[in-house]
Write a structure and sequence with these properties.
By secondary structure, this protein is of the alpha/beta class. The protein has 27 helices and 26 strands. The chain binds ligand MGD (2 copies) and molybdenum atom (MO). The site of one ligand MGD has 32 residues, from strand 15.
């Protein structure tokens, strides 16, 4: 980003035309970042709660008092019978900068001996699934999509969630590529694609196996690539030929047999073919296996031979940061428990093994809005015996439940070092304005707390720039190849640097990162973990086919991805974006609406046994019957009923990696009078 500053105030923000990936444009949210920085509701001073939890009533206090209260309470809990594991840090991706999201905070909680948090809310099912097949996280270079001839957006709303990649896809289309989107919802991406297939949610693995059936049946596979680079081809071929004929796959997915046949043939015969595998398909009970299964497809047709062929999940694994140097996992006391962040509802109610959580320290996250089973999360946050600290920029739903609120700086006010999960560039984030009000960066807060708690100065009296140098291995004598010569000074003087990666396609000759060195259709690691070692279809936990009794009461499958105007629950406070988003909505098919007497624009109640929320019905001819969509992630306080879609979502864990299952959710919808 380029920011123009006049007299100490940021007056303009824009993309950097020199940046080779973003080429000078920001998404519609970041383009309004200054509205956020100077927003009337920015938290500018520490606060102490004066009303009941949840009321959001606070009084202003000073930093010294706030930090003393926190240090005192954390020390007390650590010294009590419950011990330091009764303290739970809770953070995710408010900022993804390495310094403000995972440096001194990790050191602090490790040194304290607090419970560890498994940060699984977004990407872990897919990350595990992809690695079972591929051995590493590496996939296609996003920039190569511009040269692909056949592009599949699979569970990816690329137009809205990854607009810079969409630009590459449009370039490919100008060169003749076909763009296909596989999504149960008529997303913006589906609407702009050449072809949209709408399977039932959670059935992608079956679809992928059906495509393999057609490919092997019709001899469209790349036998040479299979022989040299893949493990388990015969077993996979037998499985898909026996179990996944198009008519069975059509029943599972609710797609037409002819469409499955056509997709398989086009995909296998148009080269280079690229798949953007993304997060939509992994937020299901079988989401990890779905990603693992889809990730087998490029090898079967030899797509990895080409730079513009293969698949892309995330680029984050390519950034070889010195995380151990930043986090200092060596400080963690032996036997410390780990809490899955998707299980916050259970953790706050003392339903997990180990001591009951007595202190919750939230930063870079808004769990009262983004966590599954929200009603239960909120009743946990309401506990009078829970001490809650929230380090935030805005008075979010979570802040309303805090005992102590600490005001945090924004990206324009602090130092950070950024990687990306959608491109190959490293960047340094320099502060350009002074912290607003009394705001402090996350690192400053943990430095101060560490001092008050008597932790070793050599661990915490480290500047943010030195932490960035540590992350880039500048103190270790030798940097990993990907970072060779990329230093804080270079980033500062020359700007963004591309990772030092080879231009060759990563798996052109095989050489996968698996124990066998092959693309593992057969995966012993999965067998060892108690799973089917071959790609398979694990049905959703909540669907008409897999849970017919539940579906009698709650017949609609609901997916709830973010609205285009929000970044998860960030930017809901930003007036221009929230006005564009309007109000909480529910997209519903014409048939499902008619059956329930629901008129377009009418208020509806969406519910299941976990909870309920209100939304305005958007009746759509394009939406497939049986599936409803609730774009989010709204703050309860901006909704007329104080609720949001996560009131209905489940804390059930996906098959791999402890991942979330936000889109595996049966509900019923009724019209609300008046
Ligand atoms: N504008 C915007 N951009 C964002 C974000 C944001 O909040 N707003 N969030 C960022 C983050 S943290 C993430 S993780 C990414 C997520 O970005 P994406 O990977 O695009 O994920 P989602 O938007 O959650 O879902 C994508 C699509 O998957 C569909 N889907 C749901 N279930 C299934 C299924 O079972 N199968 C298939 N094939 N499709 C399914 C949904 O209908 C949705 O249209 O976006 C990032 N970019
Ligand atoms: N229903 C539903 N729920 C979902 C999802 C979904 O698709 N549907 N998506 C899931 C996904 S993919 C993700 S990644 C998670 C995201 O969950 P979170 O990581 O909690 O993301 P945000 O909602 O964006 O909240 C981040 C908070 O961090 C604050 N923040 C930003 N920068 C800083 C900083 O420098 N310091 C501090 N202290 N705070 C800062 C912001 O103000 C914001 O309130 O949500 C998950 N929840
Ligand atoms: Mo995410």
């Amino acid at each position: 980003m380029l920011v123009t500053v006049q007299d100490g105030r940021a007056v303009a923000i824009g993309g950097d035309p020199q940046h080779e990936f973003t080429r000078g444009f920001l998404c519609q949210k970041m383009a309004r970042y200054l509205e956020r920085v100077y927003h009337r509701d920015r938290l500018l001073h520490p606060l102490r709660r004066v009303g009941p939890k949840g009321s959001g009533q606070f009084e202003r206090i000073g930093w010294d008092e706030a930090l003393d209260i926190i240090a005192c309470r954390l020390t007390e809990i650590a010294a009590s019978d419950a011990g330091p594991q009764a303290i739970l840090p809770y953070s995710y991706c408010g900022t993804m900068g390495k310094i403000q999201s995972e440096s001194l905070d990790r050191r602090f909680f490790h040194r304290l001996g607090a419970s560890l948090l498994d940060r699984t809310i977004c990407a872990s099912a897919g990350a595990f699934g992809y690695r079972y097949t591929m051995g590493t996280g590496q996939g296609m270079d996003p920039e190569a999509f511009a040269e692909s001839r056949y592009i599949i957006n699979w569970g990816s709303n690329t137009v809205e969630t990854n607009s810079h990649l969409w630009v590459r896809m449009l370039e490919a289309r100008r060169r003749g590529a076909k763009i296909v989107t596989i999504d149960p919802r008529p997303s913006s991406t589906a609407a702009r694609s050449d072809w949209h297939l709408a399977p039932l949610p959670g059935t992608d693995a079956a679809l992928a196996l059906g495509l393999m059936h057609v490919i092997f049946r019709d001899g469209l596979q790349d036998d040479d690539y299979l022989a040299k680079a893949c493990l388990g081809t015969d077993a996979l071929r037998e499985r898909v030929l026996t179990d996944y004929a198009p008519d069975r796959v059509a029943q599972i997915t609710c797609l037409a047999v002819a469409d499955i046949e056509t997709l398989a043939r086009e995909y296998a015969t148009t080269s280079p073919a690229a798949i953007r595998i993304n997060y939509g398909m992994q937020r299901h009970a079988g989401g990890g296996m779905a990603i693992r299964t889809a990730a087998c497809l490029p090898a079967i047709i030899g797509a990895w031979r080409h730079r513009a062929g293969g698949a892309l999940l995330s680029t984050s694994a390519l950034f070889p940061f010195n995380l151990a140097g930043l986090h200092r996992p060596d400080l963690v006391p032996a036997g410390t428990r780990t809490i899955n962040m998707n299980s916050l509802a259970e953790a706050l109610h003392g339903e997990l093994p180990g001591p009951k959580v007595e202190a919750l320290f939230v930063y870079n996250s808004n769990p009262a809005a983004v966590c599954p089973d929200r009603q239960k999360v909120l009743s946990g946050l309401r506990r009078d015996d829970l001490f809650t600290v929230v380090l935030e920029q805005f008075p979010t739903d979570t802040v309303d439940y805090a005992d102590i609120v600490l005001p945090a700086t924004t990206q324009l006010e602090h130092v950070d070092l950024h990687h990306a999960y959608g491109h190959h560039w490293v960047q340094l984030n320099e502060p350009v304005i002074a912290p607003q009000g009394e705001c402090r960066s996350n690192t400053d807060v943990f430095r101060e707390l560490a001092r008050r708690m008597g932790f070793e100065p050599k661990l915490f009296d480290v500047s943010d720039r030195d932490l960035a140098r540590e992350a880039l291995w500048e103190f270790s004598g030798q940097q990993p190849a990907g970072f060779a010569g990329i230093t804080v000074d270079k980033l500062s003087s020359e700007g963004t640097q591309r990772l030092r990666l080879s231009d060759q396609p990563p798996y052109a000759d095989g050489h996968f990162g698996t124990p066998s060195g092959k693309c593992e259709f057969f995966c012993q690691r999965l067998a060892d973990a108690g799973f089917d070692p071959l790609p398979t279809f694990i049905p959703p936990a909540e669907s008409a086919q897999s849970a017919p009794a539940l579906a009698e009461r709650y017949p609609l499958q609901m997916v709830c991805p973010p609205a285009a105007h929000f970044l998860n629950s960030t930017f809901v406070e930003t007036d221009t974006l929230r006005r564009r988003a309007g109000e909480p909505e529910l997209e519903i098919s014409r048939d499902d609406a008619a059956m329930r007497g629901i008129e377009p624009g009418q208020k509806v109640r969406v519910s299941n046994d976990r909870g309920t929320f209100l939304a305005v019905a958007r009746v759509s001819n394009e939406q497939r019957p049986g599936v409803v969509v609730a774009p989010g992630i709204w703050w309860g306080k901006f909704a007329c009923d104080g609720a949001n879609a996560n009131c209905t979502t489940s804390t059930r864990i996906a098959d791999f990696g402890g991942g979330a299952t936000f889109f595996d959710n049966l509900v019923e919808v009724v019209a609300v009078d008046g």
